[in-house]
Design brief:
It contains five helices and eight strands; from the N terminus they run E-H-E-E-H-E-E-H-E-E-H-H-E. It is an alpha+beta fold and 200 residues long. It has one domain: Alpha-Beta Plaits.
Length: 200
């Protein structure tokens, strides 16, 4: 067990799929998120709807450590509103120069399955190169890189933007294409755009 001050930060990633209309499902999902956020040890959250994929949502909860996460789950379980794919991840790196994901206008979610013959640290450096292409933009909010707690070759990356046009400009540049191609050479990538839901 880690000493309290050295416990790794954890993120619970929940992926939801529903056929219910947004007006019915989203308030329920946000109520679930608020219940989670009221527990001791909770750091931050973001709930978002995936663009171009009606009925698909993602929710990320950050926690100060496994002990508090488990205690919160057992004290008063918060039941999600629909079957979800859930993943526990550790924070590899975070940069938040300009607000939080929940305050952004757009999220870019990048899931990666790194080739087992490749070096995961090389992927982490490659993700850092993508982030480096964003930091000069004043509309760039920040980034978060998570590694699965059960599979050291599985990653979820998050970039957030306060102006979608700035994101479009960066992600359609030749520099972005080159950096992304280097990642794709050693990892299977899935990229989604998402819209954060209001926290209240």
């Amino acid at each position: 067990m880690y000493p309290r001050e050295r416990e790794p930060e954890l993120t619970v990633i929940g992926r939801f799929a529903t056929t219910a209309p947004p007006g019915a499902f989203e308030p329920e999902l946000l109520a679930y998120a608020r219940r989670r956020a009221s527990r001791k040890g909770h750091v931050s959250r973001v709930t978002a709807a995936l663009a171009g994929r009606p009925g698909h949502y993602v929710h990320l909860d950050r926690w100060t450590g496994l002990d508090r996460l488990l205690r919160a789950a057992h004290e008063a379980p918060a039941v999600p509103p629909a079957p979800a794919e859930t993943e526990l991840a550790v924070t590899v790196g975070m940069m938040a120069p300009n607000g939080t994901p929940a305050e952004a206008a757009r999220l870019v979610l990048l899931r990666a399955a790194v080739d087992h013959a490749a070096d995961p640290e090389r992927f982490e450096l490659g993700f850092g190169s993508l982030v480096g292409l964003c930091v000069a933009e004043s509309a760039f909010g920040g980034s978060l890189l998570l590694r699965s707690a059960t599979d050291p070759y599985a990653y979820t990356g998050l970039l957030w933007w306060h102006d979608p046009t700035a994101d479009d400009r960066v992600r359609t540049s030749t520099s972005w294409d080159a950096a992304r191609a280097r990642l794709a050479a050693t990892a299977r990538l899935t990229e989604d755009l998402a819209r954060p839901l209001p926290t209240r």
